Amino acid sequence: MALNQNKMKILLSKVPEVTIFFWIIKVLCTTVGETFADFLNFNLGLGLTSTTVTIGIAFFIVLFLQFRATKYIPGVYWLTVVLISVFGTLVTDNLTDNVGVPLETSTAVFSVLLGLTFLFWYRSEKTLSIHSIYTRKREVFYWLTILFTFALGTAIGDLFSEQLGLGYLYTGIIVILIIVCVFLAWSFLNLDGVLAFWIVYILTRPLGASIGDYLSQAKKNGGLGLGTTVTSVIFLIAILAIIVFLAVTKFDRLAKTEAADTKQTNGSKKSALMQTVAVLCIFLAVGIGGYVELSNHIASQAASAPATLAGQLTEFIQIENDLLTDVNANDFASAKKEADDLEHQWDVAEPVLRKIDGTTWTKIDESIDNVLAAVRTGSPDASQCKSVLTDSVRVLHGANQSSSQTDSTQTTAARKSQTDTKQAALAGKLTDFVTIENRMLTYVNANDFASAKKGADDLERQWDVAEPALRKMDGPAWTKIDETIDAALAAVRSKNPDARQCASALTDSLSIVNGENK
C-alpha cells in the first residue's frame, strides 16, 4: 500500500527530473529573461513599467495553468519558468530604476526573503527536494522560491557586473568556476544534493545574463552583435525544440516504478545543516570580501578623478550629438548602432561616475534610458527621438559644465588667460554660424517656421562639420556654444514652435557666438 502511494506521488509530481536538459533549458530561460525584457522595454518601446505589467499578467495566467495541472506538463512548466525569469528580472530592475533602491539593499532583502522561504518550506514539509513537489503547499513554496532566486540572481549579477565594474564576461567566468566547484564538491566531497541544486539554480541567473549580454552586445563592444531580438528568438526556438524533445521522449520524467524517497535520517539532516551553514559562511566571506575589494578599487579611481562630473561627460555628449545627426537624417539603422555604443560606454563608465556623484548620475541615467527606448522602438518617431535627445544632451551639458565655485584666485586668473588666448583663436571663425542664426531669427519673427527649420538643419550640419577643428581650438568655448545651439534647435524643431521661445533661444545663442567670434 505504501509503495502504491509512493508511486502515485511520483505520477503527480509537478516538476521534471534534474537532467542535463533541465540545466540547459534553465540557462536558456535565464538568458531570455535578460534579453526579452530589454526587447519589450526598448525595441517595442513599452517602457519598464508597462513591460513589467504585461509580463506579470502573462506570468500569473500561466502560473494558474501550472497549478491547475495534475502532473508535470513540459510546455506549461517551462513557459512558467521563462515568464518567471523575466518577471523576476523586472522586479529587481523596477526597484533599482523606478524606486531607487540600491542593489546592495535588493541583494540583502532578496537573500533574506529566499532564506525565510527555505526555512518555512522546510519547517512545514521537512524537505526542500525538487522531487517532493506533489502537493499544492509545496508547489507554492517552490514557485515562490524560484521567483526569489531570479530576483536575487539579478541583483547580485547587476551589482557585481555593472555597479562594481566587474563586467558580464568576468562575472560569467567566476559563476562558471563556482558551479564547477559545487559540482566537484557534490561528486567527491558528499555535498548535500539539495543544497548543491539550489546553489547552482541561483547562480544560473547571472550566468544566463552574461551569456545574453555577450551574444547581444555589438562586436566593437566585445560581443557577437546579435542584438536582443535575434538572441531572444534563437533561445526561444532552442527552448521550444528541447521541450518538444522532452515531451516526446519523456526523458525528464521519473520512472513510474521509482520511489521518491525524500525523507532524511537525523544524521543526514545534521550533516546538511552543517554544510548549509558552512556554504553560507563561505559565500558571505567571499561576497563581502569581493564587494569591499571592488568598491575600494572604484573609490581609488574616483579619488584620482575630478571631484565632480565636470569635463568627464564629453564623450557621451558627442555620441548623443551623433545620434541626433542620424535621427535628423532619418538614418535609424545608424542611430540604433550609436544607441548600443552609448549604452555600452555608459555601463563601462558607471562605477566611477556613480561614485563621484550618484545623484547626478541617476538623473543622467534616466535621460539616457529615455533616449535608448525612443531610438530602439520598432518604428521610431523622429520628433520624439529629437526631443529626448535634446533633453538628454541638455542634462549632460549641465553636469559636464558644472564646476567648483571655490577656485583660487590664481587658478581663476590662469583659466581666464587661457580662455582669452583660445578666444583669439576662434575669433572670425564663427561668422557663418552668426549668419545662419540671424537668418533663422528673421524667419521666426516672420512666423515662417518651415524655413526656420530648414535653417536649423543647415546650422546643425555646418556645426557638426566644423566641430573637430573648433573643439580642438577651445573645448570649453565650443561646449558653451554647442549648448546654446542645441537649445535653439530644440525650440525651432518642436511640433508647435513658440515664436517668443525660439527668438529668445536664438538671441541667447547669437550673443554667445558673437562674443566668441570677436
From TrEMBL:
Residues 399-420 are annotated as: Disordered. Coiled coil: none annotated. Residues 401-412 have a biased composition (Low complexity). The keyword Membrane applies. The keyword 4Fe-4S does not apply. It comes from the Bacteria. Keywords: Membrane, Transmembrane, Transmembrane helix. The chain crosses the membrane at residues 20-40, 46-65, 72-91, 103-121, 141-161, 167-186, 193-212, 232-251, 272-292. InterPro entries: DUF347. This is Membrane-anchored protein. It comes from Brevibacillus choshinensis.
